[in-house]
Specification:
The chain is built from 9 helices and no strands. The protein is mainly alpha-helical.
Length: 190
């Protein structure tokens, strides 16, 4: 990774927005973001129309990393069941990291409340892609009601992520994976 002094002001702002909004919430102030990035407010507003646009761009920029984190390393050889359960195994692993604060996309949706906010639109898109992925895997695995199973899996994912991120649940014991397994079994997924 390039050192921060070699990153453009835009990249430094996006990195700062990702770090601070994940750690402190999306209400983090422009002053703090600019200070963290080492960029003036004037420069920030030359690069982005608003803090809201910068936050949305930061979330958008993180999508490939986020989605890769939950993608099975050998997806072609894995069964739909294995690909789904891998998501929950990775969630459990991530949840015990010291800097884990839950799903950044769920957090943005919960904090912002406004479905038209640019960051809400990005976050909602990520959550909808997760549901579509679960639905497609459920269909491939022969689940009786793929749509319902996908909704249940997202509910478990988001609930586990939120509870672990808030520090009220420890997922190291496999609770999220065992819950997802029970749902897969009940849905008749092979």
């Amino acid at each position: 990774m390039a050192s921060t002094d070699k990153l453009s002001p835009r990249d430094r702002l996006l990195d700062a927005a990702a770090r601070l909004s994940y750690r402190d919430g999306v209400s983090v102030g422009v002053e703090a973001l600019c200070r963290e990035a080492g960029v003036s407010k004037r420069s920030m507003y030359q690069l982005f129309d608003s803090k809201d646009e910068m936050l949305a761009a930061s979330l958008e920029r993180r999508i490939p990393w986020y989605e890769a984190r939950f993608s099975h390393p050998d997806a072609a050889a894995a069964s739909p069941r294995e690909r789904i359960l891998y998501v929950f195994q990775r969630l459990e692993k991530a949840s015990v990291e010291t800097d884990y604060h839950g799903c950044p996309y769920l957090a943005a949706l919960v904090e912002l409340k406004d479905p038209r906010h640019p960051a809400s639109l990005v976050a909602r898109g990520v959550k909808e892609r997760l549901a579509r992925t679960f639905r497609a895997e459920a269909e491939r695995g022969g689940a009786r009601d793929p749509e319902r199973l996908a909704r249940q899996l997202v509910l478990v994912f988001d609930g586990a992520s939120a509870r672990a991120g808030a520090g009220v649940e420890n997922l190291a014991d496999g609770l999220a994976t065992s819950t997802a397994t029970a749902l897969l079994d009940a849905a008749g997924l092979a």
